[in-house]
């Protein structure tokens, strides 16, 4: 099983009420059966073309012989199946060859592919983001040159930001662009850690490259964005000569091995032909669309791997007999499945809380993306955009951190078996370990949240979040089983308010010291955010049980309610201690000196 089908249905149609999107003009031609059929297609394609080679691709990672990159052939079959099913253009308009699918449905489909084989899924994931950016900001002639082939699966896409001399400090990049007489540019420089940067899955690879036009201002205000294809493309979309883009080498990763990680050289000769996207010197702003989309996608990938880790561990725990309960003194009795031991159930409960909480959080964020585009009023669209902007750092980092813990717990539940390559847990852990790193480390997200996001537009996003949580607390206070859970979240929300105010004051007084503990604040905020997500799920579960849910349905809802209880009682219990350190402006980390290490 890739995901729990009942849980996904619950999240889409109860937690998020995705069916209500059918009332919006954009989706008037759809119905619930279209949504369900699309999900079924994603599940089938993922199971048939992605999952079977997940382990093989990990064992036989891409190779480069100096001329070409070789991937196992199953990777190409998976790409073709994904493209043939229409998922590369699924959320685009009918007029552009898309399926006009809501964003949240597309991302639910992507969860299946992530769970089946996250490394192979990296290629379409990046291509979808690159096409979205070109569609949003590139000139019509650039769109016409590249998008039809990208939607059809003939071209793939990448994002080329990092350079050997800098990572997240994009303002210091050295890649340069020189204007050419024909209106294009010639790009010179080197990029590294470029996922999907070279392969032969597609006829062409469309790189989105950040570079500085000669004479542009220093820092982030002088960065422009360019479309730089591997092969040049004529105005009518026909493939031309090889562009001046060369693969300098492959990087060898701990996980995600079937996604090529590349070092690319642009302009070793006359310069790589590049097409300016939008206006000069505004490239980083454009790129943030793809970066933020990727951040939600990274969180979703972590959630999917956590879910796989949980499901494998749950199956093993139910089937593996070992030992007897402490209350049983008779060695002649049969051993019990390890799930009967309380400590194993503790670990499974943590996994369930992290995996299901992460998936719910990521799909909620995807629903905000949808509302920001198709909300029924301008106010609704703006509110969704502001809330999404605030929450994106947590959507990226909380599943990445605790999804990895879920994978780690899975290894522990399997014991010695979990540490071997004969079981999938060790690969799931290695694959998941990348997620706290790529598309902005936890520290980068923490600085973004505390140093920038909280204060945007007068703190509008933060105010919206507080209001929504308070509304949920009022609703929960009227429910028998959720009322005590709400009290835990209310305490957590009070802590969040106090810490936020204290840290904002510290940042105003001394920005370097004030931001020194930003990552701890990011974790505290994320814990409260996911606590809200779990309380909302618990309220739905209590309502369903009160309406007479029976059998397997009752068990499902009781599982939701009990997991929410665990999360709100245990995972929020640590907040006061963290808050005390943050409010005091603890200087332990800030004051440590380089030469003391």
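Q: What amino acid sequence fits the structure above?
A:
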């Amino acid at each position: 099983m890739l995901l729990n089908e009942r849980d996904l249905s619950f999240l889409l149609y109860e937690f998020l009420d995705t069916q209500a999107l059918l009332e919006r003009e954009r989706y008037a031609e759809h119905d619930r059966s279209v949504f369900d059929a699309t999900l079924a297609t994603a599940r089938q394609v993922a199971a048939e073309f992605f999952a079977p080679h997940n382990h093989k691709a990990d064992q036989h990672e891409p190779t480069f012989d100096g001329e070409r990159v070789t991937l196992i052939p199953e990777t190409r079959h998976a790409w073709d199946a994904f493209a043939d099913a229409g998922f590369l253009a699924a959320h685009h308009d009918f007029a552009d060859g898309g399926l006009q699918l809501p964003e949240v449905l597309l991302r639910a489909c992507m969860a299946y592919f992530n769970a089946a084989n996250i490394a192979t899924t990296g290629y379409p994931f990046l291509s979808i983001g690159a096409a979205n950016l070109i569609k949003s900001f590139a000139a019509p002639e650039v769109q016409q040159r590249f998008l039809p082939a990208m939607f059809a699966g003939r071209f793939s896409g990448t994002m080329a930001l990092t350079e050997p001399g800098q990572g997240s400090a994009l303002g210091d990049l050295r890649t340069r662009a020189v204007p050419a007489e024909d209106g294009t540019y010639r790009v010179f420089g080197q990029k590294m850690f470029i996922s999907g940067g070279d392969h032969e899955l597609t006829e062409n690879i469309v790189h989105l490259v950040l570079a500085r036009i000669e004479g542009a201002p220093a820092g982030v205000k002088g960065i422009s964005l360019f479309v730089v294809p591997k092969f040049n493309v004529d105005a009518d979309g026909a493939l031309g000569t090889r562009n001046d883009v060369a693969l300098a080498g492959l990087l060898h990763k701990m996980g995600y091995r079937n996604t090529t990680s590349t070092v690319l050289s642009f302009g070793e000769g006359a310069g790589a032909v590049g097409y300016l996207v939008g206006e000069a010197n505004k490239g980083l702003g454009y790129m943030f669309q793809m970066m933020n989309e990727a951040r939600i996608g990274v969180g979703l990938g972590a959630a999917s791997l956590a879910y796989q880790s949980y499901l494998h561990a749950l199956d093993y725990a139910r089937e593996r007999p070992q030992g007897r309960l402490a209350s049983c003194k008779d060695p002649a009795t049969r051993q019990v499945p390890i799930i009967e031991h309380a400590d194993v159930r503790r670990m499974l409960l943590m996994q369930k809380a992290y995996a299901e909480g992460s998936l719910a959080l990521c799909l909620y964020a995807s629903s905000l993306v949808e509302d920001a585009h198709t909300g029924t009023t301008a106010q609704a669209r703006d509110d969704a955009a502001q809330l999404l902007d605030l929450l994106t750092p947590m959507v990226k980092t909380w599943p990445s951190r605790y999804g990895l813990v879920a994978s780690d717990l899975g290894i522990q539940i399997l014991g010695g078996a979990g540490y071997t390559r004969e079981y999938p847990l060790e690969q799931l852990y290695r694959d998941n370990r990348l997620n706290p790193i790529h598309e902005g480390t936890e520290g980068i997200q923490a600085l973004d949240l505390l140093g920038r996001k909280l204060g945007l537009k007068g703190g509008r996003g933060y105010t919206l979040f507080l209001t929504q949580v308070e509304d949920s607390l009022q609703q929960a206070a009227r429910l028998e089983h959720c009322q005590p859970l709400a009290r835990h979240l209310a305490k957590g929300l009070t802590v969040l308010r106090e810490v936020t105010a204290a840290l904002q004051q510290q940042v105003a007084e001394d920005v370097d010291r004030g931001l020194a503990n930003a990552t701890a604040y990011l974790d505290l905020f994320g814990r409260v955010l996911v606590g809200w997500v779990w309380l909302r799920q618990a309220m739905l579960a209590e309502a369903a049980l009160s309406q007479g849910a029976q059998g397997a349905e009752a068990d499902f809802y009781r599982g939701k309610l009990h997991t929410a209880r665990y999360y709100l009682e245990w995972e929020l219990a640590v907040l006061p201690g963290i808050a005390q350190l943050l409010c005091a402006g603890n200087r332990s980390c800030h004051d440590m000196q380089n030469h003391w290490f």
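Q: And what stands out in the fold?
A: The first strand starts at residue 63 and ends at 64.
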